[in-house]
Specification:
Blueprint (H helix, E strand, L loop, with lengths): L4 H13 L2 H6 L2 H7 L3 E6 L6 H10 L2 E4 L5 H4 L9 H12 L3 E8 L6 H4 L5 H18 L6 E6 L12 H6 L2 H13 L4 E6 L7 H15 L6 E4 L2 E3 L7 H9 L4 E12 L4 H20 L3 E6 L9 H4 L3 E2 L12 H10 L10 E11 L2 E10 L5 E2 L3 E4 L5 E6 L2 E5 L2 E5 L6 E2 L4 E9 L10 E3 L1
Parallel strand pairs: 1-2, 1-9, 2-3, 3-4, 4-5, 5-6, 6-8, 7-8, 8-9
Antiparallel strand pairs: 8-10, 11-12, 12-19, 13-18, 14-17, 14-20, 15-19, 16-17
Helix pairs in contact: 1-3, 8-10, 12-13, 13-15
Bound molecules: ligand G3I.
Ligand G3I binds next to loops.
């Protein structure tokens, strides 16, 4: 587990003084680190040479083996292990000062048939599973930063997937897997990981309740991974609020397998939309203190699973097939670029209820840059004094935790020139009285 702690302070200082032009040349991993998150990528061990290795090593601060740590790869027959691919990725990470995201210890897919097709009693299968975890997490003890201990445990409706593990052991297999992983590698952060849990909805509600139950039982769950295999133009509006509600349970969160696919061919217009989509996902992670990082599921279109699994779609990653950065790369770099927070007193903000009816109201908030320099990003915060709840917002991302409300920009109103104003609005629900906030702050 190599970390670049010694460089961290210098990087931060460099980033804070970097000009936007310098930021464009700074490796993505350094920009991310200076903002307090990691930027990772899935890699294929067999491709870690030449230009592919150069980009993977230079631009990303974490690597996830795309396939090499899966059960079918490392233990294709019982007790006979093949660590070659996994070893190669871990060695690469150590040579490049990168974190490792271990993926994955228990998953219903890419599971060898001796496990999936076996006839097991509950005790036998539990032992098979915990032996596997002990062997794999034990082998990489101290060298893997984050383990996806259990991958994709849920159905679309949020209920427990009836994999061989779920069907034979019920939900208890998840707790047992985490405890076995903790015993094998006490330093690794242990994650539950799933797809289609990015938005608030039935499946993420199922995950939320599962995490709550596990924590209540004292199961060592450190984090929840959100795969984020997304479709162009469909970054969920509730992504940030969803990450935040999990973080509020007391776990870390991470975007673990980000890609944004589009119908082929890619056009300039689609790639521009993709740039905005990548930026939106990065912003959601940056906005949530416990979001540890973002991992892209392959950094180049030549190493993406999408064309094989979604015929006619692709171009889902930040680099094209020739390792040239795409607009999405600039979207990531731009979002990770150091922001100079406005000095106190350089913005003012007003709040007005424009209409109100029984139980509901509409409010307008206007932010003005009263300074002499452009604001690169802004945040408006206030406290709702009488239990009002924001239900819908426009022209800003508005999130609420308890009484605390935070508004952040959308891509088109992030930058505010001197003297410029931004107005956004929201609908809210109220009961009793609907007084305005005592104060709004902008930073
Ligand atoms: O290794 C064999 C090779 O020997 C054979 O010639 C070739 C022929 O098809 O297949 C190769 O295996 C493929 C493997 O990737 C390695 O390239 C499998 O067919 C293929 O199914 C497998 O796909 C992987 C997929 O998981 C399987 O579900 C993708 O690479 C991998 O990116 C993808 O990753 C998953 C995450 O683990 C979990 N979340 C979803 C994500 C996307 O499906």
């Amino acid at each position: 587990m190599l970390r670049r702690l010694t460089a961290a302070a210098a990087l931060l200082a460099a980033a804070l003084t970097a000009t936007p032009a310098a930021a464009a040349d700074t490796p993505l991993r350094d920009l991310a680190e200076a903002r307090g998150i990691y930027l990772g990528t899935a890699v294929t061990a067999g491709k870690l040479t030449g230009g592919y290795a150069d980009v993977a090593g230079a631009q990303f601060g974490s690597v996830t083996p795309g396939n090499e740590m899966k059960w079918g790869s490392v233990e294709p027959t019982r007790g006979a292990y093949d660590w070659a691919g996994a070893d190669r990725v871990v060695a690469f990470a150590e040579a490049h000062g990168q974190q490792v995201r271990g993926h994955t210890l228990v998953w219903h897919s890419q599971l060898p048939s001796w496990v999936s097709d076996g006839t097991w009693t509950a005790d036998q299968l539990r032992t098979v599973m915990t032996d596997h975890i002990a062997a794999e997490a034990g082998r990489y003890k101290g060298r893997v930063d984050h383990w996806d201990v259990v991958n994709e445990p849920l159905n679309e409706d949020g209920t427990l997937r009836q994999s061989v593990f779920g069907a034979t052991l019920g939900e208890s297999y998840i707790a047992d897997a985490f405890r076995a992983a903790r015993a094998a590698d006490p330093a690794a952060k242990l994650y539950l990981n799933d797809y289609s849990t990015d938005a608030i909805g039935a499946k993420s509600d199922g995950m939320y309740n599962l995490v709550k139950r596990l924590l209540a039982q004292g199961v060592p769950v450190d984090g929840v991974g959100f795969q984020a295999h997304l479709i162009l133009g469909q970054v969920p509006a509730s992504l940030e609020a969803n990450l935040r509600r999990f973080a509020d349970l007391g776990v870390d969160v991470a975007i673990t397998e980000l890609d944004i696919r589009m119908p082929l061919p890619a056009t300039a217009e689609k790639l521009d939309r993709q740039k905005a989509d990548y930026a939106a996902v990065l912003r959601a992670c940056l906005a949530v203190t416990r979001c540890a990082g973002v991992t892209v599921w392959g950094f180049t279109d030549s190493d993406s699973w999408i064309p094989d699994f979604f015929p006619g779609e692709g171009a889902a990653t930040p680099y094209d097939e020739n390792l040239n950065p795409k607009p999405a790369h600039a979207g990531i770099a731009g979002t990770l670029a150091p922001v100079t927070p406005p000095a106190p007193g350089v913005c003012s903000v007003t709040y007005a209820v424009s209409s109100q009816w029984t139980g509901g109201f509409t409010a307008q908030v206007t932010l003005r840059n009263t300074g002499t320099a452009a604001l690169a990003g802004w945040t408006v915060r206030w406290t709702q004094p009488a239990g009002q709840r924001v239900t819908q917002a426009w022209n800003a991302t508005v999130t609420q935790t308890g009484a605390e409300v935070t508004a952040t920009p959308l891509p088109y109103n992030t930058t505010l020139p001197p003297g410029g104003t931004v107005s956004f609005g929201f609908n809210g629900a109220w009961t009793g009285t609907n007084p305005p906030p005592a104060a709004l702050t902008c930073t």
